[in-house]
Here is the input.
Amino acid sequence: MPAFDVIVVGLGAVGSAALRELARRGVRVLGIDRFSPPHALGSSHGETRITRLAIGEGAHYTPLAMRSHAIWRELERETGADLLTQCGGLIVSGENKSSFTHVEGFFRNTVNAARRYGIAHELLDARQIQERYPCFSIRDDEFGYFEPGAGFVRPEACIAAQLRLAQDHGAELHRNETVLEFHAERGSVGVVTDRASYRADSLIIAAGAWLPQLLGADYVKLFRIYRQLLCWFAVDESEAFAPARFPVFIWELSESRQGIYGFPVLDAAGLKIATEQYAQSTTPQQMQREVGSEEIAAMYRDYVAPYIRGVSARCTKAVSCLYTVTPDAGFVIDRLAAAERIIVASCCSGHGFKHSAAIGEALAEMAQGRQSTFDLSPFSLGRFS
Here is the structure.
């Protein structure tokens, strides 16, 4: 039976980062994924993901985001890949908002985190937002937070770069191999796949939407899977939406239960815009992968036309993706109570990619039995007891 120091199951955002960091440290590490990452079947695709340093979900996330930015710059120097673009980020909210971004007090928390960590930012009123970004149809009672260091990362490129470097440092990768079960043994962990069995000193499970079914019935209630929709719409003038003139944005709407977020125009596909829905849960197997024309029309009618000028109804691209959401929209980074050698990482709930590079570093430290440089206590499984 092949033996390793660490096995990483799931090579998306977090798993690929952990694999690269472990290999860089000289650890004998095996990475296994049921598909061939980067791929478009989970949560780490769609060309861009928002990154921001002042984190409205809680200031304890900010050190992870800051470290991730530094790691991505290191990866760019090592690989020549284009991973992080800091075009600025705008968060819009209002006293009468009806939508919800992951946690209560998201806007206020963002401002407090920026002040606590000395992150450069501006607070804008409706008039200032309208003058700076005339494409936004801002209400008089809305206001904004602008962070010049925010922007977007390219998820597929980040994963590809991390896996390439992991292999360069000696990691073993098994693509298109499905983990069927795992079990703690005396002094080790066993992993069984549809191809073989393996043994390791430690196991990291970062399987995204497939995590609940791997962990079993005792943990299923902690994770709900939701299908999300991403659409690209053609714009009248590409230059007006280019990264040099247009930020990533998050908008807590005043006339909808769902907010919207979006990105600058990067290519002929147009303006990428999305919302978040939590009305109906699903599974990776049952999820509707295709995006219907009625869904696209509703996205434009309800979330684009009323709020952003200069965007046409012509959708050039639409994809779906999966959110894995915990009851408090927080991460899980912890060891299983019944098996200390097994580490679980569910770092998503709709806001995970921006932290993934640093979490990979933290997971590598945990797998080596070292104290993490980050405070991971807010992400314990015990908080749900």
Summary: The radius of gyration is 21 Å. Residues 335 and 343 are 4 Å apart (CA to CA). The longest helix spans residues 62-79.
